[in-house]
Fold this sequence. Notes:
Blueprint: E1 9-11, E2 14-15, E3 28-32, E4 45-46, E5 50-51, H1 54-61, E6 67-69, H2 79-95, E7 103-108, H3 110-122, E8 128-132, H4 137-140, E9 149-156, H5 165-170, E10 174-182, H6 196-206
Parallel strand pairs: 2-6, 3-6, 3-7, 7-8, 8-9, 9-10
Antiparallel strand pairs: 1-2, 4-5
Helix pairs in contact: 2-3
Amino acid sequence: xxxxxxxxxxxxxxxxxxxxxxxxxxxxxxYSHGFIVEGKNPTPINPRWGMYxxxxxxxxxxxxxxxxxxxxxxxxxxxxxxxxxxxxxxxALINNGVKPENITFVGFSRGGAITVLTSNYLASEKxxxxxxxxxxxxIKNNPELEVxxxxxxxxxxxxxxxxxxxxxxxxxxxxxxxxxxITTGKEHGAFYKPLPEWIIPVKxxxxxxxx
Length: 211
């Protein structure tokens, strides 16, 4: 099936803004990067964890089986407001014929928190959510936040941000939950580059059938 190419399309199926044409029979995946990328630099460097390779992550995360939408958030983005934008995007897809089960949100670190917020605002038990090292103290200290739908969590064993089990335990409308840990020794920086340890299982989960 052909894909409409707009000026914001940086590969065959990677968009950095919401696509101009919605294909109701196709799948859509939103990727939300970590805090360090907010601003203008797509490859910022953390003194401890090195370079965050946002362009390469997008390239590696993309797939012919879905459209990848990956916004580069501006500096000082309000997480709740951005989550509302993502919610509006999902509703636009649904209103144009895309099935909720064909929509997935993936987020790392602050992007993971945004993904959880989006799940709260959207409140759809059919939408899919991937949380990458995103169940931080911020999520833990806001007990009103739950996650809804189908959930996949990946965390790094050497990282200070660990399992999302506490979030699942307090969430009442989780359809399915799967969580894996990876061990690279790279702490939070394990998700700064598209390491196969997390890219491969995430893409496998994105393409699996949960109906």
